[in-house]
From TrEMBL:
Residues 883-1234 form the Orn/DAP/Arg decarboxylase 2 C-terminal domain. It comes from Paenibacillus sabuli. Residues 889-1136 form the Orn/DAP/Arg decarboxylase 2 N-terminal domain. PANTHER family: L-2,3-DIAMINOPROPANOATE--CITRATE LIGASE (PTHR34384:SF5). The modification N6-(pyridoxal phosphate)lysine is found at K912. This is Alanine racemase. Belongs to the IucA/IucC family.
Length: 1258
């Protein structure tokens, strides 16, 4: 058994085998190794008789049990030694059942251990996980599965290697399977050559766990039959797809929609038999399987009005059938039957129905007419039974009496009723939600079927009128939802559907008689009319934003090239924006997707308690040039409504099947949206772009947490979801084995933020980031890299005496750490120790899930803490409010930047970032010069740095007085913004007998990559339109007192991607070559502006300066025209990390459930967070002194907003961020305040005292 799921160019049979092996093992690991739970048929809290980690019967039970597991209720957690810490730690692994690395090798027989090292390995997805030996022990059967782990996923979408062995172990369930007794027998290793063999071993374990009785043996055999069916089908689907040559992103319009709907060939990633179909013959599959590109004409029945049961969203309404169908039907109906209603049927279903005696009697009596095939061909979609036609008004959800995966897919009355009632509730919300047409709920306009009461009255429907005999495991079973994913909670409407196979019932007795047969016919004729999300024009035209693709199709490897279309689309989007398809762009793309999909879905729950089954097969996304444009959600029959949040607005009774307790509706959302949909999407995106899965989950969280409409509806909802330690996941393997039918089992899986993040953050604290040019990767102890880069143990910083918290020495040799800091007094030592202990405690509790809080790499260096401590001692009655600047760090950082620049490049400091005289003096003699934007800044530079330092002068508005000052103070270049300014400058220079050196600021015409601020490439007031440069060249030739010496192109601000910056420079150099020719320049200066940013959210994900300067030498130097000098003018990137803003906590309070810390300071001192609308990172520096005789107010382990002293609710520096503890008198310290802090603030608003300006020198 070889190959990998993501490598479709392999033989289809190989891929099908490996896909099933991967799904089987991932399901087993999730449900029986990782997932907490107890047997659903045992009393709560009871230990299962076989001591197995069985699944829980409800999400609530599973979540509670998983919490106990994480807290120590199971054996000590054990992470895979070679696996990435960020995705493995924090999970409650049972160490005796999952072994990796050396522990796995030790568990293998000697013969296999030797063979293992010779076994071929496929190319790994992540080098740090390549070839990690893996052993999963099966304690009840005394065996183990040995294989290779290639990629570890935080949400369980693991990737495995090429081969598997079954190992017969000496230990078994009888001796507990402990490590001491787990000695593998020397000759007990068997190569598993197929997914079926692997399934046989795993199902054997489940059978023994269930009691090893006849029922378990029958379940084992039935499951193998379904798995065989699924493998055969998948192989045939992949063989048929081999002829596809164009990947999905190359298709558009109706063909894009069809290809996506019919391209889900591998199926549910945790289902043991995702493509099984029992009831379809090979000929049936060829005719009707969407995976084979099927198209067919529907059959229609005409039914007497007295037998019709119809529900409509709007009354009255026209017939939902297409006009061509109605016209053809009229021609085939007798005059007396012209008023009959039409019921469409799948061709297979029509043949099935025509064999039923009751149907034949109804036809003979003239109450039902079989009209045959009518209308245009339709395409079956990913659910097999729902069909789509590009010009039709509706998609049709049809009954199909075939077992697909677990269930026979019919449409019982309760499903139709629930779908239409959900549509009625959602119709109002579809208009009221604040997300516009980017979020679309696909309403279901009508439902039709036969009326069972009317059927009974005819006397034509009789007991024991059965249909055709099904294959083994067939029989009448419940219809499920669109993709076979049922509701959480049990009960006939809250489970997987209506009537189940008798073998899968949970105690419900069969209901014999005419009534039961009438209800069966009702389910077998029922149809739902769903609005068509991709309705083409009569000419067949369909724009990309109106061509949504089922999300599940984007997450599977495309037959054309073996790559997941999701990765291809994201790369397309990056290319369209001129940026690199790296982790940073993956996060941008995902943020947009979450903004379109997750935020509105959460808003529906927050505003009205509506939880939609928006799993990956019910979710559709329209992409324009790869970028998310519109999100659609379908299949409303699975909608649930929280009674508590609905508050009677829906008009449904509290006991209505669609109404749920708030916790249960919440948990349904958890599984369908977070685990199934986003869990899969984030895992595939991380693998496709080699990104960190945990970082991408943080992007999801940050996006919804900051969604304004969601915060207005329920400010704490996002944190409530993402703060839970575990989420509910359906146990597909165990449920299928147990034939749970309507009441599937659930297990709890770790929330990748609430559990994994804590451990990862602990590891990352081993190194700190002291400036934008510092190390971008955190390191683990022992020399293992957190994000895949090798770490040198010798370079690990010492944290002795700091509590292991945030005071580690930076890897930058020029930066100071604890060992180099100035001597600290006892108060400082206490404060630093308390700060470290507070950070550790918060991390251990999992409180700090936000990088703006104390649990990130942002920190307060000892010299800064010491200076603040001294300020408090100097004047205890005066609340601390100060800027602290570390000039030693500033100089070292700037010197490092200058030293690494290649020849032909210069770095100027942009004075606008911070024009304080000590800052300018510290940088003078290090940077190549200063860039200014006013005559005032020119004066400040000359006063601080002297008359010889080079100065650049620019800005969109320059008065004659300012231009004259620039000329008189001898600036190197004036950046001219237009022809009028050029004429004025020529006149002023002539009056002084000078020739003014000029760079022309150009506003380039192309679209630019994403950054925080875009200053060119779009409509803006800056610079000269690129197309007008020839005109400027002609003008310049007529002016004697200006000399064009080059060009200025400041296009982006706060860009975090070095690849984006290099791509921008490549474009600039190509333009400069052309422009030099236009202006006749043999030598020139190209000022590329600044724009290199600082990541205020994640200190470990900063701009890669080392990669940038390598790119300047390797990529840009060969493109630079001879005689062209490159100049950069950076402000933020040079100065931000050297500054800290500190403000004392004056009060804490709780208003209407929200917590606040009020500071002596605010946005009038530190405007940056309000200007950029972010929560700025901070640390709480504890101050133990308390001068008052009454109790000291404090807030503990909660989310707070840090607000200032202004009379406006907008005065907040960080909003709704978690802290372990904050007390009145403590000091909030905000790092990265050295640029655009005090300089851009409205200092005198309300006339509060200014902060102190404190400067540190070594």
């Amino acid at each position: 058994m070889t190959g990998r799921t993501a490598t479709l160019p392999l033989a289809p049979g190989v891929v099908a085998e490996h896909a099933h092996a991967e799904r089987l093992l991932n399901a087993y690991v999730r449900e029986c190794v990782m997932g907490g739970g107890s047997r659903p048929d045992e009393p709560a809290g009871a230990e299962p008789a076989n001591a197995s980690p069985a699944a829980a019967s409800t999400p609530g039970q599973a979540t509670g049990l998983a919490k106990e597991a994480v807290a120590g209720g199971v054996s000590e957690p054990s992470q895979p030694p070679e696996a990435a810490t960020a995705s493995a730690e924090g999970m409650a692994w049972r160490a005796s059942q999952l072994l990796t690395g050396d522990a796995a090798l030790a568990a293998m027989p000697e013969r296999l251990r030797a063979a293992w090292r010779r076994a071929p390995r496929s190319a790994p997805a992540q080098p740090e996980l390549a070839g990690v030996p893996l052993v999963v022990t099966l304690p009840h059967s005394g065996t183990a599965i040995a294989g290779t782990l290639l990629r570890w996923s935080a949400m369980g979408h693991h990737r495995y290697g090429e081969a598997w062995w079954a190992i017969r172990c000496a230990s078994s369930a009888a001796d507990g399977g402990g490590a001491a007794s787990r000695e593998a027998e020397s000759d007990a290793a068997r190569r598993l050559d197929s997914a079926r063999e692997l399934a046989d071993v795993l199902l054997g374990e489940l059978a023994r766990r269930e009691g090893d009785n006849d029922a378990a043996a029958a379940a084992h055999a039935a499951m193998l039959e379904r798995i065989d069916s699924s493998i055969r089908n998948m192989r045939s689907y992949l063989e048929a797809a081999a002829g596809e040559t164009l990947p999905l992103p190359a298709l558009h319009g109706a063909e894009r929609v069809r290809r996506a709907e019919q391209g889900v060939r591998l199926g549910h990633p945790f289902h043991p038999a995702p493509k099984s179909s029992q009831g379809f013959t090979a000929a049936d599959r060829a005719a009707y399987a969407p995976e084979l590109g099927a198209a067919f004409v529907l059959h229609y029945f005409a039914v007497a009005p007295a037998l019709l049961r119809e529900m409509r969203l709007d009354e009255p309404a026209a017939s939902p059938e297409p006009e061509d169908v109605r016209a053809a039907a009229r021609e085939r109906l007798a005059p007396a039957q012209q008023g009959y209603a039409l019921l469409p049927a799948h061709p297979w279903q029509a043949a099935y129905l025509l064999e039923r005696p009751a149907v034949r009697r109804l036809i003979a009596a003239g109450r039902l007419v079989a009209l045959g095939a009518l209308g245009a061909p339709v395409y079956p979609t990913s659910s097999v039974r729902t069909v789509w036609q590009p010009q039709a008004a509706h998609m049709l959800k049809l009954p199909l009496h075939v077992r697909l995966t677990h269930f026979i897919r019919t449409n019982p009355a309760e499903h139709l009723t629930r779908a239409l009632e959900a549509s009625r509730v959602l119709a109002a919300l579809a208009q009221a939600h604040p997300y516009g047409d980017s979020f679309v709920i696909l309403l279901e306009d009508a439902g039709r079927s036969l009326d069972p009461a009317a059927l009974e009255a005819t006397g034509e429907v009789r007991q024991h009128d059965g249909g055709r005999t099904m294959t083994a495991s067939g029989g009448r079973a419940a219809a499920s939802h669109e993709a076979g994913a049922g509701a959480i909670g049990g009960g006939s409407l809250r489970g997987e559907g209506g009537e189940a196979d008798p073998a899968e019932r949970t105690g419900e007795a069969a209901q014999p008689g005419d009534a039961a047969e009438a209800r069966a016919l009702e389910a077998d004729f029922g149809v739902v009319y769903r609005r068509n999300p991709a309705r083409a024009t009569p000419a067949g035209e369909l724009a990309d934003r109106d061509s949504p693709m089922v999300v599940a199709a984007l997450l599977e490897p495309d037959a054309a090239d073996g790559q997941a279309p999701l990765g291809l689309f994201v790369r397309q989007a990056a290319g369209a924006r001129g940026t690199a398809a790296d982790e940073a762009f993956a996060a941008q793309w995902l943020a947009r997707y979450a903004e379109l999909a997750l935020a509105p879905l959460l808003w529906l729950f927050a505003a009205r308690g509506v939880s939609l089954e928006a799993h990956a097969q019910n979710a559709l996304i329209a992409l324009e040039d790869g970028w998310p444009a519109r999100f659609f959600v379908r299949d409303l029959e699975g909608a649930s409504i929280s009674v508590a949040r609905d508050r009677g607005q829906s008009g449904l009774r509290a006991d209505h099947p669609a109404m749920y307790a708030d916790a249960e509706a919440w948990q349904r959302f958890e599984y369908y949206v977070l685990v199934n949909h986003f869990g899969h999407l984030v895992a595939v995106l991380a693998e496709a772009l080699e990104a960190d899965e945990r970082r991408l989950w943080r992007t999801v969280y940050e996006t919804v947490r900051t969604s304004a409409p969601l915060r207005a509806a329920d400010a704490g909802l996002a944190d409530a979801f993402f703060g839970r330690p575990c989420w509910a996941a359906k146990a597909n393997l165990v449920s299928a084995f147990r034939r749970r039918g309507e009441t599937p089992d659930y297990v709890a899986v770790p929330n990748p933020l609430a559990t994994v993040e804590v451990a990862a953050a602990s590891a990352e604290r081993a190194s700190s980031f002291s400036g934008p040019a510092g190390p971008a990767q955190g390191k683990e102890a022992g020399g293992r890299a957190v994000h895949g880069k090798a770490a040198d143990p010798a370079s690990e910083p010492s944290t002795s005496g700091t509590g292991g918290a945030n005071l580690a020495v930076s890897a930058d040799p020029d930066d100071r750490g604890p060992a180099d800091a100035a001597p600290a007094d006892a108060a400082l030592a206490d404060a630093v120790q308390a700060d470290a202990a507070q950070a550790d405690a918060a991390l251990a509790e999992g409180v700090e899930a936000d990088p703006a809080s104390a649990g990130s790499l942002f920190h307060v260096p000892p010299p800064v803490a010491a200076r603040l401590s001294a300020a408090k001692r100097e004047d205890p009655a005066r609340p601390v409010c100060a800027y602290v600047y570390d000039l030693t760090q500033l100089r070292a950082h700037a010197a490092r930047l200058i030293a690494t620049l290649p020849d032909g490049c210069e770095l100027f400091y942009a004075v606008k970032a911070n024009a304080e005289a000590p800052i300018l003096r510290a940088l003078a003699g290090i940077v190549h010069g200063f860039e200014t934007a006013s005559a005032g800044e020119i004066a400040k530079v000359r006063a601080a740095a002297g008359a010889a330092v080079p100065i650049l002068y620019g800005g969109p508005v320059k008065t004659d007085e300012a231009l004259a000052a620039a000329l008189e103070r001898g600036v190197r270049h004036i950046h001219v913004e237009g022809p009028l300014e050029l004429r004025r400058l020529d006149r002023l220079a002539a009056a002084r007998g000078l020739v003014a050196p000029v760079l022309l600021r150009v506003n380039v015409g192309d679209a630019l990559p994403d950054a925080t601020l875009v200053m060119a490439g779009s409509r803006s007031q800056f610079g000269i339109d690129e197309c007008r440069l020839p005109e400027l060249a002609e003008l310049a030739r007529t002016l004697e007192h200006v000399r064009i010496e080059g060009f200025h192109l400041h296009s982006l601000s706060n860009n975090l991607s070095c690849d984006t910056h290099l791509e921008l420079l490549e474009s600039y150099c190509a333009r400069a070559r052309q422009w030099m020719a236009v202006f006749g320049l043999e030598t020139a200066t190209l000022n590329a502006g600044g724009g290199i940013g600082v990541n205020y959210r994640d200190a470990g994900a900063q701009f890669d300066w080392d990669g940038f300067v390598r790119g300047l030498a390797e990529r840009i130097a060969p493109l630079r025209p001879p005689g062209l000098r490159l100049v950069f003018e950076c402000g933020r990137y040079i100065a931000a990390a050297s500054g800290y803003y500190a403000a004392e906590v004056i009060d804490v309070k709780t208003n209407h459930g929200s917590h606040y810390a009020l500071l002596r300071g605010g946005t009038h001192h530190f405007r940056l967070p309000a200007s950029w609308q972010h929560s700025h990172p901070f640390r709480i520096l504890p101050v133990e002194a308390w001068p008052y005789p009454f109790a000291r107010p404090e807030l503990r382990r909660c989310r707070i907003t840090l607000a200032g002293e202004l009379c406006t609710p907008k005065d907040a520096l960080a909003r709704d961020v978690p802290v372990e503890r904050v007390r009145v008198g403590d000091i909030a310290v905000f790092p990265y305040a050295g640029a655009y802090g005090w300089a851009i603030s409205h200092h005198d608003f309300l006339s509060h005292p200014h902060p102190r300006q404190l400067y540190l020198e070594s």
